[in-house]
Amino acid sequence: MNFFSEIGRFVIFMRLVLKRPQKWNVFWKTTFREMYHIGIDSLLVVILIATFTGAVTTIQTANQLLTPSDMFPNQLIPKFVIGAIVSTSSLLELSPTITCLVLAGKIGANIASEIGNQKISEQIDAYEVMGINSASFVALPKIIAGIVMIPSLIIVAYFLLMYGGVIATKFISVLTYDDLIEGARMTFNPLYLRIMLIKGFIFAFIITSLSSFEGFYTEGGALDVGESGTRAVTRICVFILFFDLVIAQVFLGL
Amino acid sequence: MIKVEGLYKSFHDRLILENIDVNFYKGKPNLVIGASGSGKSVLIKCLVGLLEPEKGSIFYDDRNFLSMDYEKKQIIRREIGMLFQNNALFDSLTVQENIEFPLKMFSNLKPEERIDRVNDCLAKVNLQNSNHKFPAEISGGMKKRVGIARAIALEIKYLFCDEPNSGLDPLTSRVIDDLILQLTTDMGITTIINSHDMKTVLDIGENIIFIHKGKKWWQGSKADIPEARKSNPELNAFFRASF
Ligand SMILES: Nc1ncnc2c1ncn2[C@@H]1O[C@H](COP(=O)(O)OP(=O)(O)O)[C@@H](O)[C@H]1O
Ligand SMILES: [Mg+2]
User: Which secondary-structure segment (H or E) carries B59?
Assistant: First the structure.
């Protein structure tokens, strides 16, 4: 299908989704359940990925900068620079982008197949015939929950990345905890924090809305539900990477 | 009463329904029959607004459905109950929660009153002691009953049943037919049933519409069928093939 007609369909879908909920108490209940689902169920994978990535990044950065080379025979680079690099790349890229690419696979596929299954078993039609705005009823709580929980997970991921770095200093004889933390403190820039959160909100919207969209327009049977799930993940990843680049250029391009 | 005038529906240039004119009456079962793939489900989906016909009008007791905007249509839809071919029960909710759902969304009943209403509906469909089971845990016939109970949870005026007997054994089919007939007369609602089950047609068909090649090929009551079969070879072929 043509790219622009897909965008058009997505816009039409979002205009249905962004309607006032018909029953607020049902809406909040569903949203809190989704928040729990998205937040708690994804916590373990975020903890694993962030801690390990933080440790690996620290080891590799230390190795690159502290190994004497022809260019810098006497290790001219102060050690806190490693902390600065690990902290800044965690804020700007590792915690928002890596976390969201992982969550695309976990949350995105989950939402697309859940809604896709409701679609092919006519549950979506059942909502609609009852006089419920089905698109909004199934997708809005997920989108709101994602926009709240995914940025929170990203913040958690940042601290875990640094924690991974701290663990790594135990193995690196030439780098101490203080070097790492000093570097992170000295170069902390509120703009970086803002970029991290902006990415978090945008990626959260991409993950939850695109997967709801793919699920909602599933036709056919169980196989098609699986296909919607995979298509959702692929598209989410492409859009996340694209917006990652756009945001980097807009805020940090020289 | 539901009145349909000059209804056309096609998919990608393939005409499925062509110039359908028909009235569905209150207080009796209206049957839409036809071979598999003849467009019965498409007709029902057009009537309830799940599909958009290209041309034609649909009147719900003189209210012109297709000329309404989305919000107005939703008001009509609250007067509609529908039993889906595959039941479409909400699989993450229990039987009780399924039936309570429309009440939660559209009534101002208190929680205890809602449960009373749920139990009333379950009594109407003769299904007791299954309130806390999930759809996956009950039989096909029970799912149909839950589907019907959910459809009548609100004070409805119109009931649509898409192949209410599909996947049921002959005995349970008769029970479900009788149940739908009884609810229709007791509640005085306009009921439309899609079926290719001849037993259903001959048992409860008061106003029967035969769809063939996208057209309304024949209309009459079960009493007219023996005569009509003589003069209408397509109708005859359809009935012969069904036994
Ligand atoms: N959403 C759709 N898109 C394209 N074709 C459809 C769609 N829904 C139904 N059709 C086609 O319309 C015809 C009538 O289908 P349907 O009304 O489901 O038949 P039945 O009388 O068995 O209920 C079938 O040929 C079917 O393939
Ligand atoms: Mg059908």
Answer: strand B55-60
For tokens 């002959």, name the residue: B170
Handedness of CA A27, A29, A33, A39 (dihedral sign): positive
H or E segment at B161?
A: strand B158-162
Q: What's the CA gap between A158 and A146, in Å, rounded? A: 18
Q: Candidates B18, B20, B32, B41: which one to mutate for ligand 1, based on the most atoms within 8 Å of Cβ?
A: B41
Dist. CA A141–CA A130, nearest whole Å: 19
Q: Domains of chain B by range and CATH?
A: 2-241 (3.40.50.300)
CB of A132 within 8 Å of any CB in chain B? Answer: yes
From first to last of its 243 residues, chain B has per-residue pLDDT tens of: 999 999 999 999 899 999 999 999 999 999 999 998 999 999 999 999 999 999 999 999 999 999 999 889 988 999 999 999 999 999 999 999 999 999 999 999 999 999 999 999 999 999 988 999 999 999 999 999 999 999 999 999 999 999 999 888 888 899 899 999 999 999 999 999 999 888 888 888 889 999 999 999 999 999 998 899 999 999 999 888 876
The pocket around ligand 1, CB under 6 angstroms, is made up of: B 11, 16, 34, 36-42
Longest dimension (CA), chain A: 75
pTM score, whole prediction: 0.91
**Residues in chain A, how many?**
254
Name the CA dihedral angle for A162, A166, A168, A171, rounded to a multiple of 10 degrees. 170
Tokens 């089950």 belong to residue: B197
Structure tokens at B84: 């889906």
Instruction: Give Dmax over CA atoms of chain B in angstroms.
Output: 57
CB atoms closer than 10 angstroms to residue A42: 19
From A150's Cα to the closest Cα of chain B, the distance in A is: 24
